Amino acid sequence: MAKPPIPQEILSAGAAPILTVDMHTTGEPTRIIYSGFPELKGSTLLQKRADAEANHDHVRGRLMLEPRGHKEMYGALIVNDTDLTAAGEADVGVLFMHTAGYSPMCGHATIAVSRFLVDFDPESCPGLFPKRNFQLDEKTMTTALKLHCPCGVVDVTVPVVNGPHGRLQSDPARPVSFINVDSYATGIDVAILVPEEYRWPELDARTSLTADFSYGGAFYCLVDAEQLGFKDGLRSSDLAALSRATAKLRDAIVANPQYKVYFQHPSEPELGYFYGVIVRDQKRGVPAEGADGAEVGLCFFGAQQVDRSPCGSGSAARRALAHAKHGWPPEKKWTYHCFLSDDCGGLGGFSAHVVGKPAEGQDKSGRAGDRVRVRVEGQAFYIGFATFFVEATDGISASGFVA
Ligand SMILES: O=C(O)[C@H]1NCC[C@@H]1O
Description:
This is trans-L-3-hydroxyproline dehydratase. It comes from Corynascus novoguineensis. The chain contains 9 helices and 20 strands. By secondary structure, the chain is α+β, with helices and mostly antiparallel strands. Strand 12 (208-215) and strand 13 (219-224) form a beta hairpin. The protein is globular. 3-hydroxyproline is lined by residues 28, 74, 103, 105-108, 299, 301, 307, 309, 311-314.
């Protein structure tokens, strides 16, 4: 491969270079950071996340925001050592980041990162994922990975082919799937009051609406487009108006202490926060092969970032909600679409079904009845790789910015 077209003295003059591989999952980017991020302090993954937030947030900004990223950028930092890798419960850890902070869970990035963890060349990435030791399931031509995400351990299955050099390679033609942490509805048909200062034009004269809340590694409010006042359902031409409406709804929810109960984490207080609003259109969507039905949704998360993908953690949250609200049988497989996958005739939708209840004794939340483990599947593709650096005299780009 050609050497970088920039003199070494420029490359090495500023902060240490950061190496990434970029992928997309149904259009949603994942910038996978595999080298050069500052060493994180702490023995648990959540302590490392807190250290990244407190002491290295400018590096997140540098990689997510302009001029190296954009306002809808998303990233994943590979963390070799966590409390659960040390305990033998996980193979490797990951921290998920977006333009405004860190995520507790991310399905689209899990799908992308897992392919990369199977594929990377150890010679080009010294020190990365030392516990890598994939076993091939020859019958299904898949390999398994236990990924320690901030919300817990996610069991990933990556389809593989036998690559050259005697190594397994991920198979881009088949979907990656993951069994999420326990997912469960936290509020069904909740009447949400919308005080005057939080109303948006499409709500008309209404002062409240009905929505559900569910957890899929992150806490979501799930609301039909019609409930928000979008009578024709979800349309991409309404994106700006949908963003305004969901921002107001989020603010109305977060401002009212009576709704806090819907986004309280049973064991980790720092994961108990409101993450996003998913607007649903349950009348549209092409089911993927083998699925029983489909719907379209649009996820606004963080500081109103728009998920281009169908949202993996949100798909688990929605499938768990259908289990609790409508009593869907576990094997009922549903395809969750975003605008892109719906526009592409169904290409790239995420399909989800329930694979079981949590094992007895693992229930820390006291909600065993409705808690389920959801398997979500989707596809991610490589789009490039990069070496990012900051010149010593560059006073503008070190922390990134939003124009
Ligand atoms: O797929 C997911 O779960 C995510 N995508 C961006 C927002 C969520 O974290």
